[in-house]
């Protein structure tokens, strides 16, 4: 059991892992902690405004036991927080270490903000695509469809789906592909950005990844080749099996910030690569996405990235590089602003604050007695990390991301949610920027076709 002691910010201690012989949860970590200040001196980044947007569907009805249990068929695990202790009932093993590091991340949240996460039960889905679709619960749904939709936590969302978007596992590392936890990796990328200044970088667009995960990426690879002119993109296949065999010698993310432009394209759904690509100081050419993660919804085209339409986009990619090389100051500014968004607005303190506010808002919707299932096991940092004694990458990710003590400052101040008119205006601002860029690209290719007598490259 955990101690009932209450710490203040004046007597904060460090709490490293206590790997005793029984591998049980230690009793010395504080159950509650009183920060030094009552209110924060900073407002959370704008993407926090979407939290209420994700939760509003359950505002009127709340979340009852019956509503919650309807999410179970799609869940990989049930997570229960009660009196500051965490319990997990695993239904299905997720791919690689997604579930492990997601649970680890929530444990670190409890260590950072002891006593501030309410009692709750949630169900978590670890695959890529959302599964609770609006069409199944709207006016055109089946007559026997039950309202409200079941609440399901997941890594990404879609405008036509319901779900509670939550930070993905890779913020605490992706050991299977040798990717460090986000704080350590973002520092490495920041240092890499200093080594190669933007105007000294290769004046082409770069992408490296697994093109076999979806047809969209397979078609995208065709942009690499043209028998008429240089397409100005450099696309490379990532063979993860080969990388594992050679010790990941050619897949270091911080070594890939060498081109003026980097391309983001979705995989099966959203891709965790977005934050790594945007962090590079290169102008990101973002192929229009269907799915979104928790932090990207407040990003603005031509401010944080250059928008590329989702289909027939090879010519648009070439035009974007041409435009950037002819407008180097503007292109560099877009790249820098996208990178600053990642480095400043996505610091791990904000990731944890986002998690805190999501769980607090979700907990307020609970209209059920929070119960620990019979098959659930209590989990803490010690029970997860201490049994891993082989010195592997999973344990390294855990050690690197361990929260050593409660945070002495309160969370950032939550900004108000979007009103309907404000949200529509924001969507229009994004759409308008995309239309503007598409117009520029079409005009560019009209001139090229007349000048060169060539067919538009799509």
How would you describe this protein?
With 458 residues, this protein is an alpha/beta fold. It has two domains: 6-168 and 350-417, no CATH class; 179-292 and 296-345 and 421-452, Rossmann fold, CATH 3.40.50. The protein is 33% helix and 14% strand. The chain has 13 helices and 17 strands. The strands form six sheets. The protein has a five-stranded parallel β-sheet with strand order 12-11-13-14-16. β13, α7 (273-278) and β14 (283-287) form a beta-alpha-beta unit. α3 crosses α10 (348-364), α8 packs across α9 and α8 packs across α13. The chain is globular and about 75 Å long. The protein starts with 5 loop residues before the first strand and ends in a 6-residue tail after the last helix. The model has no long low-confidence stretch (mean pLDDT 91).
Strand content: 5-15%
Instruction: Identify low-pLDDT runs.
Output: none
User: Over the alpha carbons, how many angstroms does the gyration radius reach?
Assistant: 23 Å
Can you write the helix and strand succession as a string?
Answer: EEHHEEHEEEEEEHEHEHEHEEEHHHEHHH
Q: How many separate structural domains?
A: 2
Biggest sheet layout: 5 strands, parallel
Q: What would the principal axes of the Cα set say about the shape?
A: globular
Helix content bin = 25-40%
Total helical elements: 13
């Amino acid at each position: 059991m955990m101690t009932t002691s209450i710490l203040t910010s004046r007597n904060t201690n460090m709490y490293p892992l206590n790997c005793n012989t029984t591998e049980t949860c230690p009793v010395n970590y504080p159950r509650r902690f009183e920060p030094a200040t009552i209110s924060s001196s900073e407002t959370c980044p704008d993407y926090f405004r979407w939290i209420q947007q994700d939760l509003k569907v359950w505002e009127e009805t709340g979340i009852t036991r019956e509503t919650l249990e309807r999410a179970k068929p799609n869940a990989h695990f049930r997570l229960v927080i009660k009196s500051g202790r965490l319990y997990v009932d695993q239904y299905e093993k997720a791919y690689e270490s997604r579930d492990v590091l997601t649970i680890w991340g929530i444990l670190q949240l409890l260590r950072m903000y002891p006593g501030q996460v309410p009692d709750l039960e949630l169900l978590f889905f670890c695959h890529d695509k959302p599964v609770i679709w609006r069409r199944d619960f709207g006016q055109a749904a089946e007559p026997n469809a039950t309202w409200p939709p079941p609440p399901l936590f997941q890594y990404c969302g879609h405008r036509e789906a319901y779900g509670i978007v939550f930070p993905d596992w890779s913020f605490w590392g992706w050991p299977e592909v040798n990717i460090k936890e986000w704080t350590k990796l973002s520092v490495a990328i920041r240092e890499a950005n200093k080594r190669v200044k933007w105007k000294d970088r290769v004046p082409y667009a770069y992408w490296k990844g697994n093109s076999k995960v979806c047809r969209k990426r397979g078609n995208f690879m065709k942009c690499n080749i043209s028998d008429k002119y240089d397409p100005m993109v450099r696309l490379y296949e990532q063979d993860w099996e080969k990388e594992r065999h050679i010790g990941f010698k050619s897949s270091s993310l911080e070594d890939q910030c060498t081109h003026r432009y980097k391309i983001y394209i979705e995989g099966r759904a959203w891709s965790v690569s977005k934050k790594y690509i945007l962090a590079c100081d290169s102008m990101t050419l973002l192929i229009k996405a269907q799915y979104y993660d928790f932090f990207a919804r407040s990003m603005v085209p031509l401010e944080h990235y250059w928008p590329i339409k989702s289909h027939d986009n090879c010519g648009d990619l070439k035009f974007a590089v041409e435009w950037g090389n002819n407008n180097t100051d503007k292109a560099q500014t877009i790249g820098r602003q996208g990178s600053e968004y990642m480095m400043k607005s996505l610091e791990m303190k904000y990731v944890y604050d986002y998690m805190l506010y999501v769980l607090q808002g979700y907990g307020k919707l609970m209209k059920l007695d929070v119960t620990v299932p019979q098959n659930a096991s209590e989990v803490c940092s010690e029970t997860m990390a201490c049994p891993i004694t082989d010195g592997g990458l999973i344990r390294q990710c855990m050690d690197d991301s361990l929260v050593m003590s409660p945070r002495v400052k309160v969370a950032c101040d939550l900004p108000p949610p979007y009103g309907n008119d404000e949200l529509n205006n924001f969507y229009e601002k994004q759409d308008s920027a995309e239309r503007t860029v598409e117009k520029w690209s079409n005009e560019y290719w009209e001139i090229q076709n007349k000048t060169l007598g060539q067919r538009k490259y799509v």
